[in-house]
Amino acid sequence: MNLSTISGIVKRGKGRGKDFGFPTANISLTQTIPEGIYVSHVHFDGQAFQALTFIGSAKTFGETDYKAESYLLDFDEDLYDKTIEITLLKKLRDNEKFDSEIELVEQMKKDLLDARSFFHTLI
């Protein structure tokens, strides 16, 4: 079920995820992984957390910076400068360019429901 595992040190992004209600832990990528949204586990400090991970460049905002951004479900702590490991479990969809931030956030909410459903089936 594990598609790929990546790791890195969490760095500050542009803060858009937090503004949208989806704060993310951002790491640089050194390996090529198909762009898209993945259900994942994020590991640090000996713990594993359910997450959604975006791989790619933020097309909606015209960016070309290829990175990983993970939103940890039901988590509210600062991860800056921590080393995390991300295990990609299932690809939900490809990376898309949305016409507006509102459309993007609506899709992010759907992705979150899909992720919760995925993790619920593992119980």
Task: Draw up the topology in text.
Elements: E1 4-9, H1 16-19, E2 25-28, E3 36-44, E4 47-56, E5 67-72, E6 83-93, H2 101-122
Antiparallel strand pairs: 1-6, 2-5, 3-4, 3-6, 4-5
Q: How many domains comprise the coordinates?
A: 1
The CATH superfamily label reads Riboflavin kinase-like
Shape: globular
Please tally the helical runs, counting DSSP H or I stretches of 4 or more residues: 2
Order of helices and strands: EHEEEEEH
Runs in which pLDDT lies below 50 for 5 or more consecutive residues are: none
Integer-rounded radius of gyration: 13 Å
Category from helices, strands and their pairing: alpha+beta
Most strands sheet: 6 strands, antiparallel
Distance between the termini: 15 Å
* Fraction in beta strands: 35-45%
CATH architecture name: Beta Barrel
Oligomer: single chain
How would you describe this structure to a colleague?
With 123 residues, the chain is an alpha+beta fold. It has a single domain (4-122), classed as Beta Barrel (Elongation Factor Tu (Ef-tu), domain 3), CATH 2.40.30.30. Helix content is 21%, strand content 37%. The protein has two helices and six strands. Strands 1-6-3-4-5-2 form a six-stranded antiparallel beta sheet. Strand 3 (36-44) and strand 4 form a beta hairpin. The protein is globular and about 40 Å long. The two termini are 15 Å apart.
